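Sequence, please.
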């Protein structure tokens, strides 16, 4: 145990001013001492703690507030920081002794493995990796921040990474990358919280805040993604003529008719179609936590049901409703090289599979730049303009009233104008109007 200590008076600036130049100590606990090194002008705070066999370890806290300069520590602030600093350094030494060193790299790699496993569980047989794998590999694992020990990861380091990440990407893509990184760190905190600094979650929260990363108005639906009904019909007609098997056409048709996300439609089964009631039961999105495997009904037209009849007739209840040819490479029968041939029919697996054919469809009818999600935007706006209650519009599209109001507020006003016009009554009498 440490020996006796001659304590100095350090609590006030006047008391410290009376001290001789040099190093002075005051006990905070039995084996923890706050130090003050007085210089010709001002001084600085230190801390030391007992490590056994008559030895101490020492660390610098910062400048004392002897002259009220910015960035200095008062006595009470120095005491608080001394205890925090020693706690962090002791925990770090314990981790090192037990071989528990975790870096940003190790926890991000763990998160990628979790995301990949979840994707393969949702889509049995797929060899795909999650979208987080490519983003985090490129922008985190290949960045210098990956080699920082997790307990040493500071808010400043996160802010510095955030300000330079993915400069070649759109603001939305940069935010998605940052959110994946934040999710990886939060998962690590849940697993390792007993071995991480007490303020680790706050460092992540503020260091990776999305504030200021998106330009004003970015979250609102872009006007060139709101298509009128005639344009939607042109896209659907071109899609139905795109391939002889009708696989692309049926997917685009249901994107337009239901306003659902691709990830929901790919999970539809034959049993989810109620042809006699012109209704589809759409699986709930997997966005968010703790969602049960449930469905919600969406009414469609008889024309949509007619297109679906050939793929529901004679098939099992649990078979995927929408499928496509899976391809494989084989060697040419004559000559060198490989060619792609049809292998088997299977369900759609990733939204990227619809991107290329959808782009070709839109290019062919003069709508270059239109994206598949435009069909969802258009479905929501169509329901709003029809005067449906916002709560019903949200339920029909598996989203929230808050999201509808945030993204489509202008269209809500437009859709309600006709209703509000009916509430207008003349308030100026006939005689006054005649005078005017």
């Amino acid at each position: 145990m440490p020996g006796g200590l001659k304590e100095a008076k350090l609590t006030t600036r006047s008391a410290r001013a009376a001290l001789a130049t040099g190093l002075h100590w005051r006990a905070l606990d039995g084996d923890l001492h706050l130090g003050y090194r007085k210089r010709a002008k001002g001084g600085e705070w230190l801390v030391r703690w007992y490590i056994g066999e008559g030895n101490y370890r020492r660390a610098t806290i910062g400048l004392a507030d002897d002259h009220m300069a910015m960035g200095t520590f008062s006595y009470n602030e120095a005491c608080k920081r001394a205890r925090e600093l020693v706690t962090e350094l002791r925990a770090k030494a314990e981790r090192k002794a037990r071989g528990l060193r975790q870096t940003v790299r190790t926890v991000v790699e763990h998160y990628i493995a979790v995301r990949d496993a979840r994707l393969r569980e949702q889509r049995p047989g797929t060899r795909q990796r999650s979208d987080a794998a490519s983003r985090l590999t490129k922008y985190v694992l290949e960045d210098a921040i990956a080699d920082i020990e997790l307990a040493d990861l500071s808010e400043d380091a996160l802010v510095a990474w955030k300000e330079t990440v993915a400069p070649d990407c759109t603001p939305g893509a940069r935010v998605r990358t940052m959110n994946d990184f934040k999710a990886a760190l939060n998962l690590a905190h849940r697993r390792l919280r007993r071995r991480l600094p007490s303020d680790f979650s706050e460092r992540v929260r503020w260091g990776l805040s999305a504030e200021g990363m998106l330009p004003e108005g970015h979250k609102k639906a872009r006007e060139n993604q709101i298509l009128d009904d005639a344009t939607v019909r042109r896209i659907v007609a071109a899609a139905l003529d795109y391939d002889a098997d009708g696989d692309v056409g049926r997917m685009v048709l249901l994107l337009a008719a239901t306003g659902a996300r691709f990830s929901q439609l790919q999970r539809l089964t034959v049993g989810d179609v109620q042809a006699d009631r012109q209704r589809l039961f759409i699986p709930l999105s997997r966005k968010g936590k703790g969602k049960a495997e449930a469905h919600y009904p969406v009414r469609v037209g008889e024309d949509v049901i007619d297109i679906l009849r050939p793929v529901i007739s004679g098939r099992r209840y649990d078979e995927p409703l929408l499928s496509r040819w899976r391809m494989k490479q084989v060697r040419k029968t004559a000559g060198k090289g490989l060619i792609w041939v049809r292998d088997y029919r299977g369900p759609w697996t990733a939204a990227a599979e619809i991107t290329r054919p959808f782009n070709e469809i839109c290019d062919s009818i003069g709508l270059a730049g239109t994206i598949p999600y435009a069909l969802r935007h258009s479905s929501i706006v169509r329901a709003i303009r029809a005067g449906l209650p916002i709560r019903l519009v949200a339920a029909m599209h598996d989203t929230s009233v808050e999201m509808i109001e945030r993204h489509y507020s202008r269209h809500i006003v437009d859709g309600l104008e006709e209703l509000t016009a009916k509430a207008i009554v003349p308030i100026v009498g006939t005689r006054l109007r005649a005078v005017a």
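The two ends are 99 Å apart (CA to CA).
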